[in-house]
Design a protein that fits this description.
With 111 residues, the protein is mainly alpha-helical. It has 2 domains: 67 residues; 43 residues. 95% of the residues lie in helices and 0% in strands.
Length: 111
Amino acid sequence: MGIGGTAKKLQKVAEMAEDVYKRMNELREQIVEVRETVGETKERVDRLEAENAEQRAILEALAEEQGVDIDAAIANVHIAEAEAEAIAESEAAESATASSDAGDADETAEK
């Protein structure tokens, strides 16, 4: 192999190295941006949690003043959510069964 072939290969390797270096710098910039976004998100979540705690304290004080049992109210909400979820799952299962039955009927009709 001549010097010209070696020079071309070295040039190609140098170009590939430049591409890799460029991509690494782009990744570094993306990582910095992601870190900044995560930091901002953490600050926002912390602020929202603090606000939520304040609102909960206010609601508990108002509920106590009005004689409302908070634990019972929360339990009722969870029960209602569980019942709604169970109904949705039941309807989905019935729909899947109906679709399956319709597909079986189509196969039977084709035979």
